[in-house]
Amino acid sequence: MNIQELEDRFRESKANSRRPPTIHTSNRASEMGHPCDRYLVLLRTKGDHRSPVSPQLQAIFDEGIRHERSAVADLEEIGVWLRGSQRDFPPNTYQITGHVDGILPLAPPWLGVDRGPIVVEIKGLNPHDWNRLEQSGDRVDSLRGHRWMRRWYAQGQVYSFLADGPGTLFMLKNKATGWPLFVWCPLDLDYVQGLLDRAERINRHVADGGLPDYLKDPSECRRCSFFGGVCTPPMEFGGDGYVETAEDVIGTFDRWAELKAKLGKDAVELAVLEVKCKKYVRDVLGEQDGAHFFAGSVVAKTKLVQVKGYEVKPKTSVWVELTSLREAKGEADGIEETA
Ligand code: SF4
User: What secondary structure letter does DSSP report for 112?
Assistant: First the structure.
């Protein structure tokens, strides 16, 4: 075994520890802040069709669990003793479930509220977003408006509503330094009502088998674990899009993505497949600039570049960039922090 094999083993170990996606039997509080209704309904009806998380994202999840455990010990050191860790909420008409990280049954004097229980949520945060949050003038507003931290905010709001508490205390730990930020988010009943209405909408779709409209937001859809599988929305990507349906062609592109993830650049089969896939994209899309081509787990994008010649006349050449959707998702997922 050499050093490179150690990394391969680590990747394999993370890949093997992933739990297969399953159909959700309830609306999870941690997902209620997701921007797409269709995604929330699909979780309830076709959750097992999601692509599995990348090994990189699994590693982030595992780190998050470690941070949460150490954060509980940190809180105890400063005299804050959590109760009800991973407590479930009783069944409710909204079919919302979740597990709180901890509860303070009575309002502590330092919080300035007159009653408990106080829901406590612990999250690990990358240094970049931690610094931005620390420096923001209004941390509650920043949490609520952030592209993915808003899901934490929504989760906290739902939890404090279900626990009949006055709000949620977030402990946001910088993953690089271990230093915490504490953010108190008071219960916002108007905001919660929006989430409860949403839960009822989802329940109706689940019951009648319908699906809400597509989100059609490339930045969200590209990260979505249903994208390219049971949900491929017709989106404007700044160019035409083409979705391949021929199984054998999809198989070739998927094989390219599989080899790319395993072998990187130095493999003859990968190089041969890459040439074949790019030619296929050129043949299908022709001379289009910024056009997208989807085949299984791969998205290709074209860019027209002028090739200058001295002896031969300049001509238009189609440059094709292939991206494994799983890899692209892994990168995007890597930005998101979970605990
Ligand atoms: S791909 Fe887009 S529209 Fe479809 S479920 Fe995901 S986020 Fe929603």
Answer: -
Ligand 1 mean position, distance from CA 220 (Å): 7
| Mutation to probe ligand 1, out of 43, 214, 219 (largest number of atoms < 8 A from CB) | 214
- What's the whole-model pTM score? 0.72
Task: Walk me through the domains of the chain, giving residue ranges and CATH numbers.
Answer: 3-213 (3.90.320.10), 241-330 (no CATH)
Residue 243: which H helix or E strand, with range? strand 241-243
Task: Read off the pLDDT of residues 90-130 as tens digits, 9 standing for 90 and up.
Answer: 889 999 999 999 999 999 999 999 998 999 999 988 898 99
Distance CA 299, CA 308 (A): 28
Residue 231 beta carbon below 6 angstroms from any ligand 1 atom: yes
What pLDDT digit, counting tens, does each position of 319-329 carry?
Answer: 888 877 665 55
Contact criterion met (CB below 8 Å) for 226 and 271: no
Q: At a CB cut-off of 8 Å and minimum separation 6, what does 219 contact?
A: none
224 lines ligand 1 (CB under 6 A): yes
Residue nearest to atom 2 of ligand 1 (CA): 221
